[in-house]
Amino acid sequence: MEKYIISNQANCKYCYKCLRNCPVKSISFSDNISKVIDSECILCGKCIEVCPQDAKNYLFEYERLKDFFGKKFFVSIAPSFFSYFDEPFKIISYLKKNGAIISETSVGAELVSKEYEKLSGIKISTACPVVVNLVEKYYPEKIKYLSPVVSPAIAHARFLKQYFGNYPLVFIGPCIAKKRELEKEYDLVLTFEELEKFLESENIDILDFEDDFPQEPYPKLARFYPISGGILKTLGETFDQVFNIEGVKNIKDFLDRVDDIDGNYFVEMSACIGGCIEGPASRKDISQLEKRIRLSQNIKKIPEGKTIENVELDLKRKFKDKKHYYNYTEQQIQEVLFSIGKTDKSKELNCSACGYDTCREKAIAVLEKKAEKEMCITYLIDKVSTVSNMVVEETPNLILIVKDGNINYKNKAARLTFMSLSNKKLWEFLKDVEQSGFKEIAVNSKNLKFFVKRFNLPEDSGEVFILTDVTKELEQEERVKIIKKHTIEKIEEVLNKQMLLAQEIASLLGESIAETKSHFTEFKRYMEEENDYL
């Protein structure tokens, strides 16, 4: 099920935070196991970002980079490379010394922008793979608005192969979604974070290297693709208006309403607010402003060189309907809703505590085996309350709830025991009980003895009395005391008799022994009787 986003089950605490923040609810919870559903995931990385337990991460493949060393291979570096690393040009030098030819993905972006300029109508940029995933999987009816052009990374791969030969290709960028998008175009797809981990694992001190620069040709304006409005800077006057939308929620809102728009507009879309410099595998320890400044400053350090001219490549792209359609009937959905206590619309709170936006979505997820009924907090509360009430009703202890001298509740045992007593009379017996103690109550001409526990409910809701019937235990205890008393008396009587033996040893010997035997026989009988209580 999971391919790119990996779940660490040992760390998962089943808090549903990942699901609450997942914009497409592509995470399943079942049998105490949380999994990302790859076929439904748009790889935005939000679950990784919000998980407080580090139970979500993405596929790390940085160890494979070393397999390319020692032979000629191409590395396509996304333009946000210059905003991520403190010493980007020294890293380029290190990679070059190990056989890499470094080229900027911005070259492919330049080619893509030229294709965008040929379009008309309402068109959405397709540089962001998360946007494409979202449309194909959840808004397939909006595919007509996607620009039928490959992403800059794919355009760059095709450019490198056509003009430099069929060498191994490695892509390095800030985006997890590129791993899926480029798996057929590149031999290895890494994030900047993975490259950093690789350098650490190899104990590389990057300061040991001199600055070096990417291979020509160079782009003209496309190095600013990763910041807000960066794509729009590369477009000419083809469109009447251009604007950008960032963030999956904002993109979904736009897609919901795009059919109402008419005109010749180009929309730059990025799943990450701030653009690719804020990608899921980008640095979180520096601000967006600092990243933009770094990008601008480092770009200025790259010397002028040959730019791309008269490149002819097929950069067309088609999109597919990848939506997962369910075919559950309304009756099936209602049955699930009823089973979790949503017996009418008023009980469908749509509180999103379970992670789903509506109770109906949750019911469908249950049918899809992506969710459990117990994920509904109100259902759990009702369930626990029902069990609690059952325990209170069925316990052999007598339970009463009193408010202002009025007995408002008696459980089953209390109702049966005090059937002949009015609530007023019963309260007279109980009102002087301290926090705990014994109380004797006359019921049907019989004195019943109870151990009473008394405590207050919170928020001045009343008092609870828990009565344990100890009548039989106390009676048995009294009986044991009597037996012990009689036994001691008999033993004393026997001992006194023995004292007389010294005076009448001869004549009374036989009689004394016989009597002693008789008394001890009786003692034995007493001891054997009710022996469980001695």
From TrEMBL:
Q: For the 4Fe-4S ferredoxin-type domain, which residue ranges apply?
A: 2-32, 33-61
Q: Which residues form a coiled coil?
A: none
GO molecular function list: 4 iron, 4 sulfur cluster binding; metal ion binding
- Which Pfam family, any one of them, does this sequence belong to? Fer4_10
What are the alphabetically sorted keywords of the record?
A: 4Fe-4S, Iron, Iron-sulfur, Metal-binding
Read off the Gene3D superfamilies from this record.
3.30.70.20, Electron transport complex subunit B, putative Fe-S cluster, Fe-only Hydrogenase (Larger Subunit), Chain L, domain 3
The lineage's top-level taxon is Bacteria
Q: What is this protein called?
A: Iron only hydrogenase large subunit-like protein
Tell me the lineage of the source organism: Bacteria, Thermotogati, Thermotogota, Thermotogae, Thermotogales
